[in-house]
Amino acid sequence: MEQNSFLPILIMLVIAILFAVFTVVFSSLLGKKTFEKGKLKAYECGIEPVGEPHVRFDIKFYLIAIFFLLFDIEALFLFPWAVVFSSLGLYGFVEMFLFIAILVFGLIYIWKKGALKWD
Amino acid sequence: MEALFYIFSVIAIVSALMVILVKNPLTSALYIILCFFALAGFYILLNMQFLAAMQIMVYAGAIAVIIVLVIMLLNLAKIKGAIKDFHQIVISIIAIGLLALEVILYLNAAGEKKPTGIYTNAVINKIGNTQIIGEFLFTKYVFPFEVASILLLVAVIGAYIFAKK
């Protein structure tokens, strides 16, 4: 658990940042630039766009995101469990089984209610 | 390590400021993700690898998705300019005051109080942060752990029922 073991992650982060900066900077340097008013318009079959561009999004997008967050938190508890699993034995297995079972009940509930259906 | 701390501090403070200074809410969302990553860096410097992973997965991953979705769901073209609300100002002053008080109290007590118990920094580094969290979570604090699953269950069902209305 040395901090030096995070050096590869740091190097990867630096490379990722450099790559992102490189891509943005070079594409703006090399690319052809045209400044026209028409370029900024929304393309709508040649007709001038009318009204607001905002459309009402389905609440289902948000609902799925919330479910993702909650089950994501569930999955996070598996990490500390996995590293001490061998020393906990059967007791640890039963604990996690109960934890998952309670959440599976929630999953079945939203499944049966059709919250995961998309139509 | 000192240098890294300052780098993360600068990133955290600047990105947090940019969240409220930039005009485009989506740019704000990107800056808040950067801020979350900088905080994860602090956790790694404090030898809290598990919290760092949690910070990135939950905050920079899931919470950021929810923030972006909220921006998508709200019609931001309609909300023009900052809405100045008296309550908002009062609440923010109280919040800043409490935070300042906390920092002052903490800085005053930092020299006097020493961490107690057998789990010193050296021991934690030897065994591993995630292992210790796991050990405690599944033995001593097993009841709160199981209660957490019920809390998550309530949140799942609650989110569904609110969205249905």
From TrEMBL, chain A:
Keywords: Cell membrane, Membrane, NAD, Quinone, Translocase, Transmembrane, Transmembrane helix, Transport, Ubiquinone. It comes from the Bacteria. It is a multi-pass membrane protein. Pfam families: Oxidored_q4. GO terms for molecular function: NADH dehydrogenase (quinone) (non-electrogenic) activity; NADH dehydrogenase (ubiquinone) activity; quinone binding. NDH-1 shuttles electrons from NADH, via FMN and iron-sulfur (Fe-S) centers, to quinones in the respiratory chain. The immediate electron acceptor for the enzyme in this species is believed to be ubiquinone. Couples the redox reaction to proton translocation (for every two electrons transferred, four hydrogen ions are translocated across the cytoplasmic membrane), and thus conserves the redox energy in a proton gradient. This is NADH-quinone oxidoreductase subunit A. The lineage of its organism: Bacteria, Deltaproteobacteria, Candidatus Acidulodesulfobacterales, Candidatus Acididesulfobacter. The gene is nuoA.
